[in-house]
Design brief:
With about 60 residues, the chain is mainly α. The model has no long low-confidence stretch (mean pLDDT about 95).
């Protein structure tokens, strides 16, 4: 699949779920993370949760292999 085809597919999928996409990308956490206004405590909590997720994801991936 070419880059142009991929971009077209992405645009189509994004349009098909416009409300969900807006909720996902225009969330207060995402905006704060992007513009640097997210409180440090929130960012630290996010990092801790992401760390736990990645450990369990890697374990599940390893078990599946």
């Amino acid at each position: 699949m070419s880059a142009t085809e991929t971009e077209g597919l992405f645009a189509h999928l994004r349009t098909a779920c416009a409300m969900e996409w807006a909720a996902y990308t225009d969330h207060a956490f995402v905006r704060g993370l992007g513009d640097g206004t997210l409180p440090e405590a929130c960012f630290r909590h996010y990092l801790a949760q992401d760390y736990l997720f990645l450990i369990h994801f890697a374990r599940a991936h390893g078990l599946a292999a």
